[in-house]
Amino acid sequence: MVDALGRAGAHEVVIGMAHRGRLNVLTNVMGKPFEALFAEFEGHHDAADENATGDVKYHMGYMGSRTVDGREVKLRLMPNPSHLEVVNPV
Description:
Blueprint: H1 2-7, E1 12-15, H2 22-29, H3 34-41, E2 62-68, E3 71-77, H4 83-87
Parallel strand pairs: 1-3
Antiparallel strand pairs: 2-3
């Protein structure tokens, strides 16, 4: 899908989804390194990361990019906060 959109001229693809399948999308579609994903599950993350909400790791968003026919397509996976955080934000 990302490749087809890039060939059609898209510069950015924004993805919104529930948590089921997010780890797969983060690594295989968005290009997030497995090492970074595993480090987050061990409690290590960049303090400046705007997605570090304290929510569960697979609810966080991510920004990446892919090259399609020599052009960069920016990718953005939107955060999916837990229902408790939405109802009663800290």
